[in-house]
Amino acid sequence: MGESLREAVRVLYLIYWGATEPIGVSGTVPTVQRLAREQGEEVFLVSFDKPEDRANRALVAEVRASLDAAGVHWKDLGYTKQPPNLSTAYDIARGYAYASWLVLRHRIPVIHARTYVGGLIGTLVATTVPGTKLVCHLDGFWPDERVDDGIWREGSRAHRVARALEQWMYRRADAIVVLSERARDVLRRDPRLAAKPFFVVHTSCDDTRFVVRPARRADEPLAI
Question: From residue 23, how far is each of 174, 184, 208, 210 by CA, in Å?
Fold first, then answer.
């Protein structure tokens, strides 16, 4: 990811989902294990695991043991669900405080910020801690997804603010990870992003970790 990023010894891998939920176990955990084992990085994983997953002690022990075996340092800050919006702001504040302390305490030069909220936290830290490199990995265009899901109206204040923050994250990034060639091409239309290094990483998952739910009604929103 560029010469300065390849030389990094320590990486903060920041996600706003749980290492113990299906997408974490099947996607995030193997990723950080490979970073540690194959790339020789010292990885600090920060996650926000949901209460129902944290209550599964066998699962938590399984995940922690697998991360410990790879030498990955894992901190679960816990996901705050209620009240809506305020809980996310609270998690951002907690995440920023902890991640800033971690970066300063261990002199971590690179932050890999994944998911939209994880990106916000990582960008805030990279902006306020001098000399920190940021890999922006937002996993899609979340503000537009909210519009597609019927949760926000296109051009509404919430949509415009979220889009502005998304653009800020990408412009602050030293490298950008996207899920498809099309997403890369869309972002490169912005001349301020065209010269940045892009990496297309197709996400995979272990489908045995997911529970198949009944078919969604046509009028049922994708997110609650």
Answer: 26, 23, 11, 8
